[in-house]
Amino acid sequence: MKLLIASIPEVSVDERKEALLRASNLALARGVTTVVDVGRYFPGASVELSWEDLSDVYRWADSTRQMKIRVCLFFPIETWSRLKGLIRESGRKLSDWIFLGGVKAFSDGSLGSNSALFHEVAIHAIGDRANHLILDLYESVISANGVRDRRLRIEHAQHLAAASAKRFGRLGVIASVQPDHLLDDADSAAKKLGIERANRGSYLFKTLLSQNAELSFGSDWPVAEINPLKSIKTAMFRKPPGWEMPWIASECVTLNEALKAYTISAARACFLENEVGSLSPGKLADFVILSANSLDAFAMDMSVHIEATYVGGVKSYP
C-alpha cells in the first residue's frame, strides 16, 4: 500500500472541483440526489485528505452555488474529536447541501476510539470474521455506554457467520450493503470459500430483513457502477452475468424492500430521514421520473431509465 500511495500523483484543487461537478452530473443522470462521501481518504493515506475536500471543494461549491447533489460526509476515525467539535459548533447540517455524518474505519484499523464517540461510526467489514469482530465491538460499546440512537453501521457486510444476521437486528446495527458487488463475487466466492460456505453466508439481504436489521443500499462507486435502478434489479433477481438462475434465490428481496433500502433506510443510515428519503410534507422534494408507467412495469423491464431528476423541486437532469 505504501508503494502505491507514493506513486499516486497530486491532484490540484481545481481538478478536484471539476471532478465534483462531473461526478454530480453523472449521479443526477442516474437518479441519485444524495451521496455519502469520505473524500480522497483510504487506508494509509493522510487523514487530512477528507478535511481538505470539505474545505477546498465542498465549501467552495456550496458558497458559489454550484452544489448539485446533497452529500453526507464521513471522516477518518482518527479525527473523530475534530468532527465532534465541528458538530457541536455547527450541528450536522452545514447547509441544505452538506451534512456531517460520522467517522469511517476499516476492520483491520485502530478502533480504540469507538466507545468515546457520540456520533455515527461506519466500519468496513467484508469477511465473516471481520463482521463478527465489529459486532462484538459495537455490542461492547452498547453494553458499556447504554442503548441510544447511534445508528452504528457496517459497510459491505458481504459474508456473515451463522449468528451474525440476528445480531445486526438485536443490536440495531445498520447493514450498509452494495448489491452490485454480488455480481462480481458470485463466481469467485465458491472457489475461495467453498460452495456450501459461500451459499450459506453471502449477501444475506432477506435474512437480515427477517431478523429486523435495517438494510441500506448504496453503490460503493467508483468500485462499482453508480446506478440504483440496476442495483435494485440486482437485489431482486441476483443473477450474475452468464447465470440463468439466481445466486442464493432465498436471499432475493422484493421491489418494495429494495426501494426502501435505497431511499428511506439509506436516509436513516445518515440521520437524514427528516430531510430526504421519502416524499412527505416538510421534506426536500428530491425525486426522479422513470420511463415506466407502474412499479410492476419497472420491476420486469430492464430497459427502464431515468427521464428526469429533481433536487429540491427543481429539475436538475436533463
Helix content: 40-55%
What string gives the helices and strands in order? HHEHEHEEHEHEHHHEHHHEHEE
Taking all residues together, what is the mean pLDDT? Answer: 92
The major β-sheet equals: 7 strands, parallel
The strands making up the biggest β-sheet line up spatially as: 1-2-3-4-5-6-7
Q: Give the total of domains.
A: 2
Could you explain how this protein is built, in words?
This protein folds into two domains: 2-283, TIM Barrel (Alpha-Beta Barrel), CATH 3.20.20.140; 285-318, no CATH class. Helices cover 41% and strands 16% of the residues. It has helices at residues 2-7, 13-29, 48-63, 80-90, 128-145, 164-171, 181-193, 195-201, 205-210, 228-237, 255-262, 264-268, 295-300, and strands at residues 34-37, 70-76, 98-106, 120-125, 153-156, 174-177, 214-217, 287-290, 306-311, 314-317. Helix 2 (13-29) packs across helix 3, helix 5 (128-145) packs parallel to helix 6 and helix 10 packs across helix 11. The chain is α/β, with parallel strands linked by helices and 318 residues long. The longest helix has 18 residues, at 128-145. Strand 2, helix 4 and strand 3 form a beta-alpha-beta unit. A seven-stranded parallel beta sheet has the order 1-2-3-4-5-6-7. Residues 9-314 form the Amidohydrolase domain.
